[in-house]
Amino acid sequence: MRRNLHVILAACLCAGIAFGATAPAAAKPPATAVSADKAAPAPATAPRQSAIDLVNRGNALYNKGEFAKALILYRKAEARGAELGTISFNIGNCLYRLDKLPEAAAAFKKTERLTEGKYLPAIFNLAAVLFRLEQYGESIAAYRRALSQDADNASAWLYLADAYGRTRDYVGSLQALEKARALDPEDLSIVYQMAEAHAAMKEYPEAVTLVREAFARKPTEIDFLFYIGDLHRTQGDLEAAAGAYREGLALREKDPETWYKLADVLAQDKKPFLAMDCLQRALSFKPDFTDAAVFMGNLAFDAKWWDRAEAAYVEALRGGNKEGLEGLRNLAYEYHQQGRNDRASQVLSAALPLRPKDPALKAEVEQYRALETESANAAKANATKVAPTRSAPP
């Protein structure tokens, strides 16, 4: 439910028609159709279009999404004396839509200057463009100029918080988020953003407290519990993280990703068998969760639970995860170290149908088979050797 903090396209960019420009009224159809042969002849020279007509035509094209054509008409209108604040704003919108960001920023700056900073859509658009250009300091300044006149704009406070976050000014980000939350206390996504700002400053208890309070207000938002688990996990409090994940899973059991996170926490806490149980739950809800299968294989391998490791790696490889093959190779080498080249070849042979065009895999299987044959022949030779006879005592 976390929102994308910076919706670059400000609402005013959708308008096309700025202040001072109005769309023309629809023309009324004639009472009777006039045939081509009775139509009045066109004048030898068409009358010069007024700036207002050009702006209105540009607005129509802009609203149809034909931004390049609209831009041409706006520039013509500018040359013919259109109101400069209006036309520079519309030009900036077109340039933004055409992804010409530096030129768009220049147009919005011009609008702000010509209107003495009174036309807020231009300043908000300027802030958004500067953000896209990664000029975060200037973007922050523009948002602050606009918010000084429109302090009740909750979305703008969120955009400002995002810009502060990009400069790692988490204090500034938190202050902006608090303003946004005061204006829109029901927007729970703001809680996530505030918690993340606290976490970025390693203020984990404050972040957890904030999310706990939000969960108390809305207990149906189970993701809050999972996020609390993430926060505890980040600060290395494994027991608390496991507790939060379990609390959430009790309310939403079929969440394979959280079962995986719980398994990771338990594995770090030296509880591999509990972790494997969690991974088994994850796979029961999402059989194609190949990362969970690889994790299961690794835990079983470390526990010397060879058959379970093999089954997990094969399942991961069957799902297209190449790490499953690497797990099988490690398992085959382990068998080789034990002198069990027959099992080593069997393990890799199970992978052959899944990787039929892998020449290296085929060569490894043949190598283990050759080693097994060599060992068998050596054992057979030793068994057939005749023991030396002893002389009878005198």
Describe this protein's structure.
The chain is mainly α. It has a domain of 116 residues: Serine Threonine Protein Phosphatase 5, Tetratricopeptide repeat. 66% of the residues lie in helices and 0% in strands. α1 runs antiparallel to α2, α11 runs antiparallel to α12 and α15 packs parallel to α17. The N terminus is likely disordered.
Assign a percent range to the helix content: 55-70%
CATH superfamily of the domain at 1-17 and 52-150: Tetratricopeptide repeat domain
Proportion of residues in β-strands: under 5%
Structure annotation, total helices: 19
What is the structure about, briefly put?
This protein is an all-alpha fold.
Strands, helices and their partners?
Blueprint: H1 51-63, H2 67-79, H3 84-97, H4 101-114, H5 120-132, H6 136-147, H7 154-166, H8 170-183, H9 189-200, H10 204-217, H11 223-234, H12 238-251, H13 256-268, H14 272-285, H15 290-302, H16 306-318, H17 323-337, H18 341-349, H19 359-384
Helix pairs in contact: 1-2, 2-3, 3-4, 4-5, 5-6, 6-7, 7-8, 8-9, 9-10, 10-11, 11-12, 12-13, 13-14, 14-15, 15-16, 15-17, 16-17, 17-18, 18-19
